[in-house]
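Meet my pick.
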Amino acid sequence: MDDAMSGQPPHKKFVLNGPFDLEVFTNCVIWERHPLLQFHSHPEVESLRAALVLKLRQQYHEMCHSRENIEAPKESFNRWLMERKVVDKGCDPMVPSECFSEISLSMYNEIMNDIPIKLVKPKFSGEARKQLSKYAEAAKKMIESRNASSESRKIVKWNVEDAFQWIRKTLNATFEDYQQRLSHLKQQCQPHITEAAKGSVEAICSKIYHLSCEYAKKIHQKNIEIITADGLKESCPLRVQNPKKVYCYPCVLAHPCPKQPAVHIFTDKDTTHLRYKNDSLRISTLYFQKLEQLYRYNCFDDRKFNLFLTRVWSLLKRYQTWFGSNESSPTQGALPLSVFSVLHKHFGIKKLEDNVINEISFYGESTRKAKEELKTNSIARNKQLSDLKEAKLVRSSSFNEVSNVFTTYELHLQKFEYKKICDLKKSTMKFFLEFIKSELLFHAKTIEMLTESYGHIMNIDADRDLQQFCNYFSFTQLGSPKRDDSKTTVGDNMQTHPTLRRFNSAPNFNSSTNPTNNDSYDMNTDSKSIESIVEHSESDSELDVETNPNLLDRLKPVDRENSESVSVSLSLSSA
């Protein structure tokens, strides 16, 4: 303690062995603080504080029920305590007693949101219809019983009557229709209802604050009585002379510690029980050991652990007082909502939820609702069918109801199927977009390979290939066919030689002039073209395709029934 107060780091590094392995050391530097004027915790004071806070909680529930005819919002009193302690400058560590604004915005908004009734998210269309009717009736009843202007009453009553007429006329409304109608009614009526209930709600908030100030005075008086009975006096505010920067150290209380009563302890398996008089509190044994380790390091005024059990009991009692006797397991009062929001955005969870989780969960919720609505309609349909069989005399009246059920059933089924198709379309489009991107990349690589192949083709020796071509055809043996009116094709008399297989796979650059299956082939023209090619090859040993653009098509023998087409690419060298 002396090292910490003098601004020097502790000479010894404490290592507390245990399940948590606490290694306590700080490098945080703060200004030296004056001792606090709060009293030491005492079981009698904590019991009194718990009773007064419970009474204040009950009064809050009673005022909400009697003045606004609503139940107090869940956990709103606990949030009010936390919101008040942020701005409270009183001496009590829990009960607000000195706040700048008497009216809490947190409590005001939560009460106003439940007026005229508390709205919940319904599961079925029937529940949505019932909630719309209740809200309309409650709004009408409230605006008539409050001191509101004539214009506000006129607007609220007109919208309420319009909502009732819509409910009577619309028999086959969907779940979304009821929700949209409720939202429209609330948007039109809520401003006038808020203006009418503003004074009453502010009176509730102000009354709770004044009661809290009175209870804080009673708690303070109880602390004075305890230290007076032990012969101690209340300390005056203290100041630090010549403040300096020191390493962070535990808080120091200005008031002396009074004599503490005995607290009994016993362990039951994994739970430790602490009992004072008839009030027994429990804590996990593992965390009880953690508190013991922290107490050993931080509480310098009780080295012998004489006050440890009493202070732990007071701590547990204060937690129970804060959250109430029916504290739920997920209750978290350590950090405010704004801090959790910053952490939520900092770790990037929001983006993951918006892009992935929300879409999947929304589709699952829609599927569940559709199943429930279909199940409800199916039950109603079966009931109507059974009634139809039993009551044949009233078949005409029952037929209309059955048709309505069938219509609703088909409508929901079509709506669900349409949404499923849209979702499948969306996911399929996304998949094909990725597939097209991969195919474009593949074809880009293919173009590179074909470009390289084209370079190799450019290096083909035209003279040598032409010589092989002429040697293969042996024009002298082929002869000149006679012209026939039936126009038979030469493909029946020609066969592909193995030496020209690469000419067969060559691409056709002039596809517009290829003969089709319905066109005839002129043998006389082909014979003249072949003779001109032979004469040209013997004279120049080179074939000029540019002078004869139809040469490729004429040199291509076609066998439509028995053989494959042969394509000779001779224009690559000239290109």
Summary: The chain has a mean pLDDT of 76.
